[in-house]
Amino acid sequence: AQRVTQPEKLLSVFKGAPVELKCNYSYSGSPELFWYVQYSRQRLQLLLRHISRESIKGFTADLNKGETSFHLKKPFAQEEDSAMYYCALRGSGNTPLVFGKGTRLSVIA
Amino acid sequence: GAGVSQSPSNKVTEKGKDVELRCDPISGHTALYWYRQSLGQGLEFLIYFQGNSAPDKSGLPSDRFSAERTGGSVSTLTIQRTQQEDSAVYLCASSLDRAINEQYFGPGTRLTVT
Question: Could you tell me the pLDDT band of residue A59, with boundaries at 50, 70 and 90?
Fold first, then answer.
């Protein structure tokens, strides 16, 4: 079975502090992992995917197959980073994404 | 071009009534997905259409839920005999195909069952 766990419902950090949003997954094969973000009053949108190995808005995420994790990190949080973040997994075959329950990030000035 | 659109944006209905929610995907996108976003539950997958293949209905929570996709474009999610626990935001997404799997989401329909 495919499962994505985001252990924190809410994460509050001060502006300029490092932030790490945790994501753990359960999947027997080689998954594709994604982070989606939903800013206030905006649509859910893709932030980054592990296969791209890119940094978007200062965020990075590394797939750790040994720990089955795909934590999202940013060294210096900004107020505009406040949003709902969802980790998602796609297994092999023509399967839809499986999302975690989301973490609300609040960056305090 | 235009993104994914959904209508209505808000729907209030009485318990026991049927509702239809509409999704217009991005033109040319062959894959279409429905999700339910509830407080504290994240995004629950409901149903997935891919081209002319049989839809993946594995996420539908009960037989009161059904969806159609006509002509490979517009999709309608129908909830029969609505219950209060059906209250949620229903999100639609589309993607070009499996190989390019970025899903583009619509704004959602907020359903409130009273």
Answer: very high
Which residues of A fall within a CB distance of 8 Å from B91?
Answer: 44
CA atoms within 13 A on the CB side of A49: 13
- CB spacing of A99 vs B48 below 8 angstroms: no
> What is the residue-wise DSSP string for B8-67?
-SEEEE-TT--EEEEEEPPTT--EEEEEEEETTTEEEEEEEEETTSPPB-TT--STTEEE
| Closest alpha carbon to B76 in B46, B52, B43 | B46
A29 or A37: whose pLDDT is higher?
Answer: A37
Mean pLDDT of A12-39: 94
**Residues B101, A102: C-beta atoms closer than 8 Å:** no
